[in-house]
Amino acid sequence: MLAALGLLVSGAANHAADHLDPPGRTDPAIDSTPDVPADIADVFAWYGPDTVKLALTFAGPSVGSQPAVYDRDVLYKVLVSTAPPDDTPEIVIRTRFGAGTRPNEYGVRFEGVPGVTGSIEGPVETTLEKDGVKARAGLFDDPFYFDLRGFRETRSTGSIRFNNQRDFFAGQNDTGFILEIPRSRFAGGNGTINVWATTARFGGQK
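^ that's the sequence the OP posted. Answer follows.
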């Protein structure tokens, strides 16, 4: 599964939303056993004077009372091209989750983070710091405001059925992770970068 966006370091344009896509693998309305942990929700990138923040959300939307989803058999990749339109990633950040020694205890490992020696790893729901990079994985509010019912009705009928008073994502969460990386590590911090993400499952069926 894949989602992508482009970030102009002096302005941004993105095509990030990827919820329940592809439907045959992730949409419970079509697949009765969707691969929830591997379902990318959105890819985000922001920049500031000194840092670039990269975020990937997945395994949602879910109601606020449901826990985060950590699957050790899913590999998450955030890929960055610092020389678009070339789509060859110079940076590939790999993220995996694993169970701890206690019930409901999980850890996360980030590898391939630019400027970081080895990996960044530690418990989820904790801000981790190493070599000038901050990283965090856990449960996050879904940031989108969207009328999913109106979208589906519009798609099936061919007539506009959106209602701006309906927000399907209200009160819903995604699992995700975010990294804050010095801007200078992206080709000197100037120009445009392309950011996209993929998931891959290992160790058996969904």
